[in-house]
Write a structure and sequence with these properties.
heterodimer, A: alpha/beta, Aconitase, domain 3, 5-stranded parallel β-sheet, B: alpha/beta, Aconitase, domain 4, 7-stranded mixed β-sheet, 8 helices, 7 strands
Chain lengths: 418, 170
């Protein structure tokens, strides 16, 4: 039988010859990731009564959500995690210095094409940018995986999204995924896998593919996968030996839905409060006054994102009425941005640069909004109360749109080519 | 499993109730039900936590629990005293988390349409039968696959894995 990429990976990891959508299988993941919530995973792991994790080499723990610790409670949780990784010989522990968990995973060779990876974070779908099948689970579930090395999974149906053509100047993968969210809605891919194809996707670098797979979760997707190609190989060359096994979908694989998008017709997009699928073309949100702009996050905190935003801000000043927060996705991106002079441009324009991490994206610290304030962010969620007050509003956009807004103090009606 | 019927007053909400409104991140430094309970659904309905009584039932539309994978969300709902959630559909991670921590969830689109805020409803978790005691109507929730029912019957995943590992040791 012909199969999709998700079906092939799940068959391989469950030891079956083939698996079919709807089937419940027991799979053995290649890697598992937890961030600050490893504290809760540890608690459940102890409750299960296991003494040793199934395989310390397969567990990766980067701290990123509340770094450096914003409260005594978080400090205690971080401490317990540091003690646990020592006790269990978990070598792939990245303390607060390293960056956002998903970026750390992809950057440091923990994600290989064809792998099945689980993480206690909803945006674990991001690793599809390297042709892996990866998805988010809860803390109790992770404790069970740490104890047994196994998980039950339902084999998902797959949606095929084909995108062809060239983006107009100023249009980015973020605009594409926002457009798709508006079209498919926040439940459009619930329990399903997404595979991306087409000439546009082939020309998007791993960074932009990361953005697509990351935000596919906002459509409910279980997996979001860009098939392995020359771009994936190029990205991985410096990071690992080529001893991985990518899976390709069979040409006549069965898809539950097919969408074909013309990228050349796309314009910059905005998600309005308080829903991720409340998406409109930039023009329809133009003129809305903004108090804070956030550029960064696992969605848009990579070097090309920062470069594009800095180019817009070069020789310009952030509006006196706007606080611009810039958060590089990882330490390595931060260093690269300094070397390329990007951070200088941000600082000269009047930005505040925060340490790599999740920062204000989830409203834990570093840029909480007051009632009545509005934020334009390159992050992935705009739910009510997400970034602080329930009477604040969060809009989502690309880094180019966000940087433009920071200068003029309101959502622009167009972006300048950079 | 204890075959005990659940009975309570309904708190009805709409579609896409996300985990950020179920329990905002500002409270997620705690995993204790008692800490989370008083803030449950605060950003959606600030009166919920003070009005909810032990056994009450949350009824909602599509994609309940979408967004963050935070397990604090079903913990907060259970901690607040709600006995179960009935919805048209659940987001993937919330669905798993609820089963894993032992919060009963029922998928029953027709029941959601037939139940109003404030109705008295009875649920038999063993059979999935939902009865509206205030109005007319009785509905059947979708049943769980046997593999998942086993986890539910063990009271959640911790109990299930303990049992399984215990078996494996013998």
């Amino acid at each position: 039988m012909p199969h999709t990429i998700a079906e092939k990976i799940l068959a391989f990891r469950s030891g079956a010859r083939e698996v079919f959508p709807g089937e419940l299988i027991t799979a053995r993941p290649d890697k598992v990731m937890s961030h600050d919530n490893a504290g809760l995973v540890i608690k459940h792991f102890r409750a299960i009564g296991s003494e040793k994790v199934f395989d310390p080499a397969k567990i990766i723990i980067p701290l990123d959500h509340r770094v450096p610790a914003e409260s005594e409670r978080t400090a205690i949780a971080h401490k317990s995690i540091r003690e646990f990784v020592k006790e269990q010989n978990i070598e792939n522990f990245y303390d607060i210095r390293e960056g956002i968990c998903h970026q750390v995973m992809v950057e440091n060779g923990h994600v290989r094409p064809g792998e099945l990876i689980l993480g206690t974070d909803s945006h674990t779908t991001s690793y599809g940018c390297l042709a892996a099948a990866s998805t988010g689970i809860g803390a109790t579930e992770m404790a069970a995986v740490w104890a047994t090395g196994e998980i039950w999974l339902r084999v998902p149906e797959t949606i095929r999204i084909e995108v062809n053509g060239q983006f107009k100047p100023g249009v980015t993968p973020k605009d594409l995924i926002l457009y798709l969210l508006g079209r498919l809605t926040a439940r459009g891919a619930d329990y399903k896998a997404i595979e991306f194809y087409g000439t546009t996707i082939e020309n998007i670098p791993v960074s932009g593919r990361f953005t697509l797979c990351n935000m596919s979760m906002e459509m409910g997707a279980k997996f979001a996968i860009v098939p392995f190609d020359g771009e994936t190989r190029k990205y991985l060359e410096s990071r690992m030996k080529e001893d991985y096994t990518p899976f390709a979908a069979d040409p006549d694989a069965e898809y539950t839905e097919r969408h074909i998008i013309d990228a050349s017709e796309l314009t910059p997009q905005i998600a309005k409060p308080h829903r991720v699928d409340n998406v409109v073309p930039l023009k329809e949100a133009a003129g809305i006054r903004i108090d804070q702009v956030v550029i960064g996050s696992c969605t848009n905190g990579r070097i090309d994102d920062l470069e594009q935003a800095a180019a817009v801000l070069e020789n310009k000043q952030v509006s006196r009425s706007v606080r611009l927060l810039v958060i590089p996705g990882s330490r390595s991106i931060y260093i690269q941005a300094i070397k390329l002079g990007i951070m200088e441009k941000f600082l000269e324009a009047g930005a505040v640069i925060l340490n790599p991490g999740c920062g204000p994206c989830l409203g834990a610290h570093q840029g909480i909004l007051a009632p009545g304030e509005r934020c334009l962010a390159t992050t992935n969620r705009n739910f009510k109360g997400r970034m602080g007050s329930t009477e604040a509003e969060v809009y989502l956009s690309s880094p180019i749109v966000a940087a433009t807004a920071a200068i003029i103090g309101e959502i622009p009606d167009r972006v300048t080519e950079s | 499993m204890e075959n005990k019927k659940l009975k309570g007053t309904v708190f009805k909400y709409g579609d896409q109730v996300d985990t950020d409104v179920i329990i905002p991140a500002r409270y997620c430094t705690s995993y204790h039900p008692e800490d989370l309970a008083s803030h449950c659904l605060e950003d959606l309905d600030s009166t919920f936590a003070s009005r909810v009584k032990q056994g009450d039932i949350i009824v909602a539309g599509d994609n309940f629990g979408c967004g963050s994978s935070r397990e604090n969300a079903p913990i907060a709902i259970r901690g607040a005293g709600a006995s179960c959630v009935i919805a048209k559909s659940f987001a993937r991670i919330f669905y798993r988390n609820s089963i894993n921590i032992g919060l009963p969830i029922l998928i029953a689109p027709d029941a959601v349409d037939g139940i109003e805020d404030g109705d008295e409803v009875e649920v038999d978790p063993a059979t999935g039968t939902i009865t509206n005691l205030s109005g007319h109507g009785s509905w059947q929730a979708s049943s769980f696959p046997p593999e998942i029912q086993e986890i539910i019957d063990a009271g959640g995943l911790v109990g299930y894995v303990r049992k399984k590992l215990g078996k494996m040791k013998v």
